[in-house]
Structure formats: structure tokens, C-alpha cells
Amino acid sequence: MVKLAIDMMGGDDAPQIVLDAVKKAVNDFSDLEIILFGDEAQCTIQHERVEVRHCTEEITMEDEPVRAIKRKKDSSMVKMAEAVKSGEAEGCVSAGNTGALMSAGLFIVGRIKGVERPALVVTLPTISGKGFVFMDVGANAEAKPEHLLQYAQLGHIYAQKIRGIEHPSVGLLNIGTEAAKGNSLTKKAYGLMAEQQVFKFAGNVEAKGLMQDVADVVVTDGYTGNMILKNLEGVAKSIGKMFKSTLLSSFKNKMAALILRKDLNQLMTKMDYAEYGGSVLLGLNGTVVKAHGSSSAKAFYSAIKQAKIAGEQRIVQTMKETVGAENE
Amino acid sequence: MVKLAIDMMGGDDAPQIVLDAVKKAVNDFSDLEIILFGDEAQCTIQHERVEVRHCTEEITMEDEPVRAIKRKKDSSMVKMAEAVKSGEAEGCVSAGNTGALMSAGLFIVGRIKGVERPALVVTLPTISGKGFVFMDVGANAEAKPEHLLQYAQLGHIYAQKIRGIEHPSVGLLNIGTEAAKGNSLTKKAYGLMAEQQVFKFAGNVEAKGLMQDVADVVVTDGYTGNMILKNLEGVAKSIGKMFKSTLLSSFKNKMAALILRKDLNQLMTKMDYAEYGGSVLLGLNGTVVKAHGSSSAKAFYSAIKQAKIAGEQRIVQTMKETVGAENE
Predict the structure, then answer these.
(1) Superfamily for B1-115+283-327?
(2) Does the CB of A208 have a partner CB in chain B at under 8 Å?
(3) pLDDT category, B190, cuts 50, 70, 90?
(4) What is the pTM of this model?
(5) CATH assignment of A126-133+142-273, given 3.10.560.10, 3.10.290.10, 1.10.580.10, 3.40.718.10?
(6) Of B209, B242, B243, which is closest to A234 when you measure between CB atoms?
(7) B222: nearest Cα among B275, B160, B282
């Protein structure tokens, strides 16, 4: 049995999509229990494995993250994080304010002792459909070489436990493949990764190869990672837009679009990284999953599933034993 | 009359594409003179405004940049750069080894006095077809806030003189639009740019908006810029590949592809940044244009045209007067 804490109030279409996703999840998994935090009056679920806890406040997208976590003590997000902190729940999922959720993770759930900087992880699509684990996508704007090494260790465990890859390769994102390439951060991080024996180091990988299965895990600092993530989103969206206007630009193109519609939709699904679940703040004393703010019920369901697998696989315990202070 | 020095031997398909481009350029522009550096025996041009200078060496893609520039004294690239240094030519164009060309620019052509770090500039496509000036895409892996400010000043002049935009807006690439976002580099650079009065500061711009005309010039450090450039290339190529395989996956899709072919090719052309010319190393005592290694004659021709406009517009003189030590 895995017990998860869930924020009913976070995200553009909350609570509806959260409720739909929770309903489906408890029906699909008989070994899943959920504590739902939010406005009781809006909750439409009655299920023996779903407990609703009423909260009088909610954190909005406009709230300043750290202040919101400190002041809105009876918000659904704070209460959810406290349930993980106390050990009552193994993990939590929210589609709310990303900064606030990261603060809740850091200040309420807390870091694993020995993990210096928890990192934000996403799984991104590749052409083959396999995807890769990418981190840090913005938990820390600045990083030291030792942090990148620790990200790599955390990402390696994540790829093994959540993505089921037995021996994941870990690459260092850089502006060239040779060891001497990059800035002082990547040069030093390369040295640290080349020395260690825990994971298979794939060396430097370039941004142009990211969608071509260059490595199972790709590590970078949070500034660069966030930049690349937003660039990927932006380019995919822009190309999609240009393409759509081409398809609608004439009658004959519209006919061709009709023929292609089903296959193009499949292609778009393959490119949509919400399909791979939410982003995860790794290195904490519990699993904290951020579902996209614009999540559909399906994407939120994926995020719940992800948190459930993390619980089953005891990923936090493994991190404590292999990366954290228990390892020393 | 503008005189340019051109490297006949650089690039995957040299000297053929170089010769084709030069022929077209001297025919199209009656006020253009060219000195062509390379193997005389391979030169097929006889034209009153094209002078061929024989060189016994050439720098290959495998050569280590700095060493190649120092040792291959009779290479076409070194001789070309020397012609700019001496003032004989106003600018130069090569499709050869990028690192070597940057070294030739720095060590032979030389920096404008007062410009601390010359930067590599490209023009990238946007959905509207307008495009934007992006820098530094890799001349310097590390940068200080003052360097970013100087890049902005150089890019501003470039957008005015080469792209003909009267009052170009300059944005700072960052991971959020608020002034306080980013790492210590971008936070300080933001302060410097917000203070100055020379150019219109568009504030922080995000990587997801790059293709949507967020600013006429976007400035970042060379590590991040190179990363974004390669990511753009990689994503566009990967999406293209996935799309192509969808179009070829069935008979009915192939029929639809036939209908769309012409419009899709137009779309690809709009996305191809080689159409906007080469990349330019800004801040030197002469214009140094790098045409893509895999340039077609058409792309090399664009790069020649770019160097010619830079010469006509006296861009180097303007940079000396407004950014360089002559300004102090």
C-alpha cells in the first residue's frame, strides 16, 4: 500500500482535473491510498481509500513562493507537504505554484541529509519515444561542480527506479563533446564524473543531440536546464504554429491536413512531455511531484502514478543510502 | 567600392561553392572587389574585380585552432585575415574551421581597442520571418556582466547597420522576465542595461519566446548562447525528421505530402538560418564573417553580401567611435 498526499487546489483547472485524476487512480490501483487537501465543499469524491482534509487557504500562481509557504499555514499545499514531512504520506503531487511547491519541498519536507542541493527533474521526449531524464531544470540558478555530480547520482537512481533502466548512462550537457570544452563549471564537473565508478558516464553531450537518445540521464545547472527546457517548449510550439498555418493556408492543404490528422495528433502526443508525468524535486525526504499548471486530468493522473512508483520503489530510501549522509 | 578577402579553401564543399558564390557576387555588385586566397590551380574565376592569391597551405576542420593559425602561415585563412589586418580588405569571409577563424580574428585582425571580448553573432529566424540578432553564440565560454553590456552595444549597432532597424530593442536572455530572476551574471547585467541610455532595453526575455519577436537583439553569455543555438538546430532537425517519417508512413500520407510539398519547402526555408547569412565576429578591426561549414553557394553568397554591407555601412568605424576606446 502506498499513501500519497494530493493538493486539490493547485493548477489552472483545479479542482476538477485533480478530482478526475484521483478517481481514476484509486480505481486503477487497489494498493493506493490518497489524502486530499483542499476545499471540502468542492470535493466530489467518496471512496474508502480517499480521505479529504479541509483547508481554509490556497496558494495562488501570483503568491510570492517563500512568503506564501511561511504565511498560508492552512493552505492545501502546506498541509500536503506536512503530511509528507510527518511520514503519514510517502509523497505528494500538486499542479500549483512551482516556486511555492519547491519552497514547501525544501522548508517543510526537507532535504535528505548529505544532499546539498535538491534538483528539479523532468523526463523529455526523444525521437525514438524512449525519452531521457533531464536535470536540474531550475531548482538552483547556480551550481558548483560537486552539485552536478550529485545531480548525476540522483538522476541515475531516478532512471533506474522510476524509468526501469538497469544501467542508465549519464551525460553532462556541454557546448562540445571533448573533455576540455565548456566553462569552468562543466570542465570541473567532467573531471568528477569521469573519476567515479557508480554510473556509466556518457561524457559531454550537446544540446543538438538531446532528442536523439544521447544518454538516459542528462545533467546541467538549473540556469542552463531551465533555459533549454523553455527553449524546447518554445521551438516546438512555434514550429507547430507555423506548420498549422501552412496546413490551413489553402483548400488543398486543408484536404491534406484531413488525411494526416490522426497521424499528426499521434506525433504531437509523442512530443508532449506532460505525457511522461510531472517534474520531481529530487533529494528530499519524500517524493514531491509537480504536475504542469495546465495539466489535463490525464497528465495529473500520470503524475500520481509517478509518485506511486517512487513510493513503491522506495526511491527516497535508496537516495539516503547511496547519495546522502548514510552513505558516508 | 568595397574590397573583401575570401577564403577559397574552407567548408565541406570548397572550393566549388565559394567560387560559385564569388562569381555571382561580382556579377551582381559592380562596386565589389574580391581577393581570393587559396590553391590557384583550382580557381576557375577570371574577372577583373577578382584577384587570386596562391596559398600553399590550408587549415582543416581537424586542426587545433590556435596552433593552426600560428603554424600554417601560408594558409588561405591566415593570408585572408592578414589582408584585413593590413587594411587592404575591409572584411573577410570563410566557411572553414570556426575556432581557427575566431583565432585568426582575435590574433591577426585584432580587437577594437576598448572592446574587451569580441562576440559571435548570428541572425535567427522568428515565426513572422523578421528574425533577431543573437549573441554571443560561443566566442567566450565565460562572461562578466560588463561583457554582456558591451555585447548589447555591439549587437545594437549590428542591428542598425546590417539589419536596417532604426531603434533596435535589446533583450537579456534569462530564465524569467522579472528583474530579480536568473543567476548572478544576469542579475548584474540587468542592472547595467537598465541604467544605460544608448539602446532601448527590452528587459529579460525567455528562451520560449525567442521565435516570437521578443526583441531585435538578444544577448547572453557564449556558453548559454551556443547551447541555445545548438538546441534550436537539434529540435528543428528532430521535429523535421519525425514529421518526414509521418509523411512517408503510408500511401495516403504520401499523397498528402505531395499536395503540401511546395508549401512545406517554403516553411523549411523560413526556418533555415543559413538564409540570414553567416555568423559574424563583432568587435574586431574588420568584419569577419563565418559562413556555415556545410554552406551552399547560396548561403556563402549571403555571407559575402553581409560582409559587403558591413563595409559600406562602416560598421567597424561606428563600433570604434561608440563602444571602443575612441568613445572614452
Answers:
(1) Isopropylmalate Dehydrogenase (3.40.718.10)
(2) yes
(3) very high
(4) 0.89
(5) 3.40.718.10
(6) B209
(7) B282
